[in-house]
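Design request, tokens follow.
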């Protein structure tokens, strides 16, 4: 990754943290003096939702963050209808993240883990699926994809558990400020692991294939 690409990635992360972290805190603190805590929090969480809807419309794709927020908003409305409180609103993303983590872990018991399908889905090469099918015959390749799937499942589930604990230990303003840092920290660590482990595994896989 060159300097220009790294700069663009950093700018994207900073903007996202401002929109998904700082602005909701400011809006909540401003509205809470005029409305109930529940209503203030509901409005504050509309900001990251709007940001994700904008990207979905602009790029015509529903990325992971967009799906998190859309699902979370539905859970927020359900909480409101059922008479939920602000803590339940704060937990909605954690519920979605936790469920995704469980899905990753559950896929380990299927013929092919979730990472296998994700790798094919997000690859731009037409021959990738055929290549993956061929590599799937190699036991080490299957082992690598299952390790990656397990790490992502544990990371997502762990992120959810940590935030569920913190939501009852921190004030609403503090939780709003740190929740996105936790999310990006966990996702960032999982991505770095995936990149590093993939490079290591590819070298070993090529050696195994060449020695066959």
């Amino acid at each position: 990754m060159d300097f220009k690409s790294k700069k663009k990635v950093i700018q994207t992360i900073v903007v996202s943290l401002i929109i998904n972290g700082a602005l909701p805190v400011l809006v909540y603190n401003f509205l809470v003096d005029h409305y109930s805590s529940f209503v203030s929090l509901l409005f504050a969480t509309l900001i990251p939702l709007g940001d994700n809807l904008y990207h979905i419309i602009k790029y015509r794709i529903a990325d992971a963050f967009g799906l998190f927020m859309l699902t979370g908003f539905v859970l927020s409305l359900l909480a409101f209808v059922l008479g939920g409180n602000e803590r339940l609103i704060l937990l909605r993303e954690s519920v979605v993240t936790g469920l995704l983590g469980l899905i990753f872990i559950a896929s380990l018991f299927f013929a092919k883990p979730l990472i296998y399908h994700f790798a094919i889905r997000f690859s731009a090469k037409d021959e990738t699926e055929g290549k993956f099918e061929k590599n799937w015959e190699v036991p080490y390749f299957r082992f690598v994809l299952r390790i990656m799937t397990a790490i992502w499942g544990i990371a997502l589930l762990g992120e959810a558990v940590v935030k569920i604990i913190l939501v009852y230990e921190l004030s609403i303003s503090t939780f709003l400020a740190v929740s996105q840092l936790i999310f990006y920290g966990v996702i960032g660590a999982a991505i770095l692991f995936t990149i590093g482990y993939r490079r290591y595994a590819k070298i070993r896989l090529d050696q195994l294939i060449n020695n066959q």
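Comment from the thread starter after seeing the answer: thanks! The chain is about 80% helix and 0% strand.
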